[in-house]
Please model this.
Amino acid sequence: MEGTLFKWTNYYNGWQPRYFLLNETGILSYYKSRELFHEGCKGSCLVPACELKVHPNDPLRFDLIIPGEQFFCLKAKSQPERQRWLVALGKFSHLNAIDHEFKIKVQELRLYETVLTQRIHAIKSIANDTSIPDIKKLDESL
Model:
């Protein structure tokens, strides 16, 4: 599915029209406009990794939320248009259960990355403190 939706950019620029393309693998990409498609996408998200929320007070708005990372606040031109997008995006929601395990693994990997980064900094610090690194201190930092 493809078409123009309004994307919330910021308080200065507000809602801006953007050209969106949802491919068969569930990746939603957006471009500044259809005419500027050749310049490449401005952003994208994997729909199964998102929570899809319908706005309670705005009949044209829906949000795609990647927990802890980013979100897209979107508006359609009409309610039928919004419904078409919700149906198209909803086709990928069955992958959400599978993706939940993936999200947990990604969180674990980020934790391991943080721990490894801290240990690398500790090792570098020990190595920089002396001209000949103390093997005992290096072993303790691991």
Helices lie at 79-90, 95-129, 135-141. The beta strands are 2-10, 14-22, 27-31, 43-46, 51-54, 61-66, 70-75. The two ends are 50 Å apart (CA to CA). The chain has a mean pLDDT of 87.
